[in-house]
Design goal:
With 145 residues, this protein is an alpha+beta fold. Helix content is 24%, strand content 33%.
């Protein structure tokens, strides 16, 4: 009887290589009504929904999510505008590529809109393209600074 496992052959690689991909289905969110519908959605719509959830969940805020889930945007509030404008694309990209269905986030268009005369406060709107294994999705995310 051997005390150490036999590593001369491994069935793990064979199992993973032969396994079929799991279906990419999830319950459909009705964002405007703040409801989750009983119907299922899949593929590109499921990726879009996952990206929406990631971008609307602050990273490290909720114990139910791993530290890889969510986006770090709350700490940008009150920071200098040039810093915020340069950080938003990086933070959005880092948050979204944690999902293995998302390959990249590109084509950022960042706009700053002042909300008062002094220009110290306002909103930044980021428009971008999410490139997934199922296709591309045009998305946007607003941040108050």
């Amino acid at each position: 009887m051997a005390l150490l496992p036999d590593t001369s052959t491994s069935s793990l690689g064979e199992t993973l290589a032969g396994a079929d991909l799991q279906p990419n289905t999830t319950y459909r969110m009705q964002i405007e009504e703040e409801r989750i519908q009983g119907a299922l959605t899949e593929r590109l719509a499921a990726v879009e929904q996952a990206a929406y959830k990631i971008l609307n969940t602050e990273r490290y805020e909720y114990v139910i999510y791993s530290w890889n889930y969510g986006v770090e945007l709350a700490e940008l509030f009150g920071k200098p505008i040039p810093y915020v404008l340069s950080e938003i694309p990086r933070r959005i990209r880092e948050a979204l590529v944690q999902d293995d269905r998302i390959n990249d986030v590109t084509d950022f268009d960042i706009r700053y809109v002042r909300s008062n005369e002094q220009g110290r406060r306002g909103d930044v709107l980021a428009r971008f393209r999410v490139r997934s294994i199922y296709g591309d999705i045009a998305m946007e995310k607003g941040v108050s600074i």
